[in-house]
Amino acid sequence: MNQSIPKETFSFFKKLTKNNDRDWFNEHKPEFKAIEAKVKSAYNYLGELMDTHDQIEKIKVFRIYRDVRFSKNKLPYKTHFGGSFARKKPELRGGYYLHIQPNNESFIAAGFWEPNKEDLLRIRKEFEMDSEPIRAIVDQKEFKKFYKNFNQEYKVKTAPKGFDILDPNIDLIRLKSFFVVHEFSDAQVQSS
Q1: Sign of CA dihedral 172, 175, 178, 182
Q2: Cβ atoms of residues 66 and 77 within 8 Å
Q3: Which of 72, 99, 134, 171 is least surrounded by CB atoms within 10 angstroms?
Q4: Which is nearest to 106 in space by CA: 5, 8, 3?
């Protein structure tokens, strides 16, 4: 059985981008459901592979329906697949996110997205005490070549409460999420 992302995924999303309305989608829903089943199978297979070196507790492929209640963009459907791979809790934190979208916009993210207040404080305290272990990883030439570094968009503007703005590790302490991203071309996504 083929466990890769089906080739028709990108062509479907390209058509949906041009016809993002309920009438068109309802007419093409059987086609979407067939693609979605194959994609879910690929996500589950990937989760099984990941579980050989990590402890993946839950795999979730997100729905195609957009939540438009508070958005200026009222298009009803996403034009990508997104899914998460949650690690076993409470022992392990963080997780993985796989985003499949045409036009070379696919990526995988790994790390800790929006940790709860207690975990965030613990991470910041560890950076304050000793940032060498994390810097030794993210400053490696090979690491930087493969992953984008910690996402700098998700940070507080100054020092978080209880931390010194002059701390030499303030660049890490200011972060609110801790993850890296690796992008994939359409050809890579659709290869075995």
Answers
A1: negative
A2: yes
A3: 72
A4: 5
